[in-house]
Write a structure and sequence with these properties.
3-stranded antiparallel sheet, Fibrobacter succinogenes major paralogous domain-containing protein, 6 helices, alpha+beta, Fib_succ_major
């Protein structure tokens, strides 16, 4: 009888672990055209990069414009030309948070993502949020541990490792590194604006907003 009760308890614990406790599913790695390697995780049936994109070239080998000055950044937006920069033009920020890209780089037909990958659509971000219990709770489960100061909290339950990389406005100014993470989708809203997702250090919400295509945000990719 005692052995039977022990088995029941162990079986119940196993079922709890399998169906209740979320775990990160490491899916391997992927390399971009520049040779940068990214960890990947599987969430909601989709394989995501677990790090922000750092590539300098489109998939066909053409360079993405590196717009350092505010004037160059504004010029790229005015011409609807893809561009990237580091936050505050500091390579150390690039190592920590990846690169900031305007949406014209995201949408360039030469391809920003590695072969077999793409920048997620607005719908794919929505699917991710729904899987994580809805937008009210999703950000907490995506945030990397140890880098988000504030009451919002972080658990990184699935190994996504979202970072507060800030953004670059279309006029070239930088904002919010360390407190807000903003991620492009591939989906256009209206002329000049596209959808993105953002999270902050104050709460657990994964917000959906539109923003100017000339702004510089971080990028995650998903496997096709």
């Amino acid at each position: 009888m005692l052995a039977r009760e022990t088995c029941k308890k162990l079986f119940g614990l196993l079922i709890f672990c399998i169906f209740i406790l979320p775990t990160a599913v490491v899916a391997g790695t992927v390399r971009d055209v520049d040779g940068n390697e990214y960890r990947t995780v599987k969430i909601a049936g989709m394989t995501w990069m677990a790090e922000n994109l750092e590539v300098r070239h489109y998939r066909n080998g053409d360079p993405i414009r590196h717009a350092v000055s505010s004037a160059a950044w504004e010029d790229a937006a005015r011409k609807k030309e893809g561009a990237w920069s580091y936050y505050l033009n500091s390579s150390s920020n690039g190592k920590a948070y990846g690169k900031l890209y305007n949406w014209y780089a995201v949408n360039d037909p030469r391809g920003l993502a590695p072969g077999g990958w793409r920048v997620p659509s607005d719908k794919e971000w929505e699917t991710l949020a729904e899987f994580l219990g809805g937008k009210i709770f999703a950000a907490r489960k995506l945030k990397a541990d140890g880098v988000w100061d504030g009451p919002g909290g972080s658990s990184d339950q699935y190994g996504f490792g979202a970072l507060p990389g800030g953004y670059r406005r279309n006029d070239g100014c930088f904002f919010y590194k360390g407190s807000i993470g903003l991620f492009w989708s591939s989906t256009k809203f209206v002329d000049g604006y596209a959808w993105f997702r953002n999270m902050n250090n104050r709460n657990s919400v994964l917000f959906r907003n539109d923003t100017n295509m000339g702004n510089g945000l971080t990028v995650r990719c998903i496997k096709e």
